[in-house]
Amino acid sequence: HLVEIARLAQGKDDLDAQTEQILTMYEQGGAGMVYHGMREDDVIRIMREPFTMIAADAGVRKLGVGAPHPRGYGNNARVLGRYARELGLLTLEDAVRKMTSLPAQTFRLEGRG
Question: Rounded CA gap, 82 and 90, in Å?
Answer without folding.
Answer: 10
